[in-house]
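Table 4 source record.
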Amino acid sequence: MTTRSPAPAVGSANDLLTANHALAAALLRRERSRRRGVHLLMVVMTLLCAVTFSVTVGRQYRELQSTSEFFHRHAYVPSYDPLSNVILGLPPDTIDVRDSAPAPDIRGITLRRNEIALVAGGELVRSIPLAGPVTGLPDVVRAVDDPSWIDQDGHGKVTLHAALIVSPGGSLTVTAPVTDLVMTVRRGVLLGVDGGRLTLNGVNVRPDTVGGDVNRHAVDERRPFIVATHQAHLAITRSHLSYLGRDWNSSYGVAWSDGSTGSMTHSEVDHSFIGTYTDHARDVLIEQNWFHDNTLYGVDPHSYSTNISVRHNVSERNGRHGIIFSDFVTGGVVEGNITRDNRLNGIMMDASSTGNRIIGNTSTGNRGDGIVLASSPDNLLANNMVTGNRVGIHARGDHANVQIRGNTVEGNQLASQGVELAGNTVRDNGDQWRPRVLIGIWSAVPLVVVLLAGVTGLARRRRDRMSGRPALAVGA
């Protein structure tokens, strides 16, 4: 009798096949889930890298350099009258004439309507009647006829050994044949106009010795200066003024004060304490000049001066600011100037200087800030180019109703402080996004994700071939 093996149960085979399919499907789901997790991780890591690069590379960070630097200044004193002091035989910087004794070495030549008066130590030395109006500086030399007061060399140079003051009613034009006006460095020697009219046209004005201020500290020498007082008119054109002034009120270099008016045009001012200064002056035009290498400021309208126009000048390499309006200077215009490479700020409105228009200037490469508003509201800043400074536009203190529009602020360590720059062109400044870099970073994100996905897929297939593991499929 033959024994037969029992036939396998059909139901058991179907159950095994179903179990295999279920296992394969579960493994496939797990593999796909793992792949999705890997892909998601790659995307997240790529995004994190992009954010990191955006913050570190796509934004400029520059440490603000310090602008603090010691600079000794004399104490500011109320305005005094240097021309009257000299006539009284006192040093120009005398504050209290009641407690001061005249000095015989302080001398003055005063030009009046009908006479020239020579004074020394406050006393009249000689009165020279004039038959007619003075037509030029050679007339003064001939009338005085004393080289210890004023002399000329016959080749265009006139040397002052005393103060020359144009008094009320007097008028003087210094021009050809005079080309050089030299002032002796001694107490009381200056060029002034006191209620009269003085014009310098095509002349070089300087002291007889340059002196030294190599450390750019305050000038304490007895350097001569030019000043207009008591509603005088001072006009300077096509002239070169150098090494003038010292650190005392209205003795800074070239100054208009006490209601005086006039102009400076097409001239050069260098190595003076301040290039040009105003104090309670009005309607002064400063246009197309070159101010450079002055100890303190290039242009300094000050103390209640009104309607000062500063146009189309270059002010550079000065010891502090290129142009500064300070102490209630109102109704002025700063237009079309270039302020560059100054040791502090390019252009500054300071101490309640209001109602001024700062338009179309270029302020670049200054160690301090490009344009500064310090407690000076109600000013207009428009269409200026501000580049390569510490801070582009900086406002502190009261700056209400300031209009800032149409300016280009580029390549500064910071674009602004204290103000918003909406309505202006702002680019490539420190602490500012760099659009081109950001575009490059985020354009690379999808490419990096696709590349990483391809690399991981190749690595997975290589691993499967080496292990001999077949690809999972539901029908396997």
